[in-house]
Amino acid sequence: MKTENNLDTDQIRGLVWRLAIPSMLAQFVSVFYSIVDRMYIGNIAGTGEISLAGVGICGPIITMISSVAFLVGVGGSPLMSIRMGEKNQRAASQILANCFLLLAVLSVLFTISSFLAKEKLLMWFGASEATFSYANDYITICLLGTVFALLSTGMNQFIICQGFAKTGMKSVLLGAVCNIVLDPVFMFVFGLEVRGAAIATVLSQMASCFYVLRFLFGDKPPIRITFGNYDWQVMKRVLMLGLSPFLIIAFDNVLIISLNMLIQRYGGESQGDMLLTCMTIVQSFMLMVTMPLGGITGGTQTILGYNYGAGRPDRIKKAGIHISSLALGFTTIMFILAHTVPQYFVRIFTQNEAYVELTVWAIKIYTMGIIPLALQYAVVDGFVGMGVAKVAISLSMFRKVIFLGGAALIPVWFGIDKIFYTEPVSDFISVLVSVTVTLLVFDRVLKKREANKPLTYEGVE
User: Fold this and answer.
1) Beta carbons of 330 and 297 less than 8 angstroms apart
2) Integer angstrom CA distances of residue 409 from 202, 245, 278, 424, 447
3) Strand, helix or coil at 110?
C-alpha cells in the first residue's frame, strides 16, 4: 500500500524532515490550544489570576494521566516499526491489537481512580482555599474526557510510525481548532468560565479520538486495528519499553507538583499564589519548547526503529545526526525568543505589571539550558526508538534526580524566588552525562543488533 513516506528507500535527510516537521507542528498546535485555555482563563474579569493558578495546579495531574498514552503509544510504536523493518507484518499487527486493548483498559481504570482521588490530589499538589474551587471545577470535567484523550494521543503514534505523519498532524489540528472555537463560546457566551474551558477541551479530545480510530480501522494504513491474538507477553514488552517515556512525563509532573508544593510552603498564601500563577505561565512557555521538541525526536523514532529492525546502522547514524541538528535549530530559535521578547507571551495571560515583571525574569532563567536540552531529547528518544529501554530510562531518571535535588535545596539556600534555577541546572548536567553515555554505548548497541539480525523474508519471520 502507498504511504506518505517509504522508511526503506527514501533519503534519510528528507525522511527526517517529512516526519519531524508535521510531528513538531502537531505538538506545537497541541500546546497552543492548551495555552488558549489558559489565556482565556487568565483574562476572566476579576478572577483571572487566581483562576489561572487553580488551572495550573490541575496541569500536572492531567499531564500525568496523559502519560499513560505514551506508556502504550511510544512503548508499542517502536516495536511495531522494528517488526515492519523485519518484514514481519503479522507480528506488527499483533502489537497494534494488543496496544489498543491495553490502552482502552488503562483509560477506564485511570478515569475511575482519578475521580476517587481528585480532591486529595489537588490539596496535596498545592491548592489553597482561594484556588481550590477553580481547580476542582476544571479537573472534574477534564477527567470525563480521559478515555478520548488517551486513545487519541496513544493510538496516533501508530499512525505516525507507519509513515503517515501528516495524518497524525491533522488529528491534533482537528482537536486544536475545535478547542479554540469552542473555548470562548462555553466560557463567555454561556458564562461557564473555568468549567467552559474544560468542556471545550473534552469535546475537542472526542473529535481527535474519532478521527484517529476511524483512520486506524480503515483501509489506508498497512497495519490496521484488529481484534484477537492477545498476548500478555506482548503487552508486557510494550509496557517495559514505554516505561521510559511514561516515567519521563510522570516524573516531570512529580517535579512540577513538587515545585508547586514548595512554592506554597515557602511563599505563603499571598506570595505563593502569585508565584504559582507565574510558574503556570513559565511552564506554558516551556511546553512550547518541550512538546514540539518531543515531536521532532519522537516523530522520527520510527526511522530509527525500522532501520534497527532492518539491521541498517548507516541509516540510523545519518538519521541521528539530522534529528539532532533539527532539534538544536529549534531550541536555538526558542532560546532567542525567550530572551528577547518574553513579555509579549506573558501579556497574553495577564496585564498585571507585577506579574509580568516577575514572569519575564523567570522565563529567562528557566530557559537558560534549552539549547543543549535538544541533545537530551534526541538521545533518550533515540534509544527508545531502537527499543533500548534501560539506557533511556537511566538517562531520563538521572535528569529528574538532579532537578528534584535542586528543587529541594535551592529554596532553602537562596530563597523561594530562586527556584526557577532548578531547570537550567538539571538541563546542563543531564545533557553532559547523556552525550557521554551515547558516545560510549551507541556503537556497541548497533553492533550487537547487527550480529543478532534475524533472517527475514517478506511476511515471514
Assistant:
1) no
2) 38, 26, 20, 15, 42
3) helix
pLDDT per residue as tens digits for the range 316-366: 889 889 999 999 999 999 999 999 998 888 887 777 787 888 889 889 998
Q: Spell out the residues 6+ positions from residue 359 whose beta carbon is closer than 8 angstroms to its own.
A: 278, 281, 282, 342, 346, 350
Cell for 183?
A: 473555548
Can you tell me the distance from the alpha carbon of 189 to that of 185, in angstroms, rounded to the nearest whole number? 5
Write down the residue that cell numbers 472534574 correspond to: 140
56: closest CA among 264, 256, 305? 256
Report how many domains make up the chain: 1
Domain containing 16 equals 12-451
Mean pLDDT (whole number) for 115-133: 80
What average pLDDT does range 59-86 have in this prediction?
82
DSSP letters, 411-427, are HHHH-GGGGGGHHHHHH
Tell me the angle at which helices 313-340 and 12-42 cross, rounded to the nearest 10 degrees.
30
Q: Residue 185 has what DSSP assignment?
A: I
DSSP-assigned letters across all residues of 360-411: HHHHHHHTTTHHHHHHHHHHHHHHHHTT-HHHHHHHHHHHHHHHHHHHHHHH
Specify if 6 maps to a domain: no
Alpha-helical runs (H) found in 125-231: 132-143, 146-160, 165-184, 193-216
Q: For residues 296 and 376, is the Cβ–Cβ distance under 8 A?
A: no
* Residue 456 within any structural domain of the chain: no
Q: Is residue 96 part of a domain?
A: yes
Q: How many CB atoms lie within 10 A of CB 198?
A: 27
HSE toward the beta carbon, residue 368, CA cutoff 13 A: 13
Say if CB 257 and CB 121 are below 8 A apart: no
CA angle at 87 for the pair 83 and 90, rounded to the nearest 5°: 65
Structure-model confidence comparison of residues 96 and 251, the more confident one? 96
Say if 342 falls within a structural domain: yes
457 phi and psi angles, rounded to 5 deg: -135, 170
